[in-house]
């Protein structure tokens, strides 16, 4: 892995469409190459070797059909956004997000300086939106460029469009920061949106220094977002429920097989098992 540039493990990230906020599978990680800078700097910017911080994010669009009375050029209202996978505030990691819209929009380069990182527009056409994430200075000096296709029309176009049920398209990814600075780790050590490793006993981090443009009064979480009911669920709790359900199915299948075997116990047994079979 090169030490001088950003490396991304998956060039095209998976996208998932949902009409009801259903859960979706997860995708490969976006991992930065290790910093070429001196890792033995003194102070809070000193980097911790062999440590990784993971930030799960979701980016996507939600589009509402405005109905027959809307003009042809303003048929849909849509929102593009970057949110925490568990709807927590990403402001401790992300400094600003730049959305690059289609050139037909006024001021197509939109800069959002504080969370929640989103913007809303009206239009009629689908196009690709470039999303650039910029991080605080103690996090990373590189940016992450994502690409998302704005979807306005549902896959099943046999019936009339609904003004109540939006078209949701979201992608999940995990941004991984290897060898983080002590200040970054101290700030997000107990942050609900960030996955940090367990530190050795007795390891002391410095008191986190305040960062620029972090608005304490303005909460950037999206738990109470007006569209949160339509967000897809990428949470670990949801996955655990699925695993529990699958385990129950496996256990039920094992019980069924045991019953079949117990019924076969009454049948005459072969003195020697057929070749190729082993009993355990």
From TrEMBL:
Q: Which GO terms describe its cellular component?
A: nucleus
- The entry's protein name is YEATS domain-containing protein
Keyword Coiled coil listed? The answer is no
Where is the protein situated, by its record's location annotation? Nucleus
- Give the matching InterPro entries: YEAST_sf (IPR038704), YEATS (IPR005033), YEATS_dom (IPR055129)
User: Where in the sequence does UniProt note compositional bias of the Basic and acidic residues kind?
Assistant: 34-43
Q: Does the keyword ATP-binding apply?
A: no
Q: Please give the superkingdom of this protein's source.
A: Eukaryota
One matching Pfam family is YEATS
What the entry lists under CDD domains is as follows: YEATS_TFIID14_like
**What is a biological process (GO) this protein takes part in?**
regulation of DNA-templated transcription
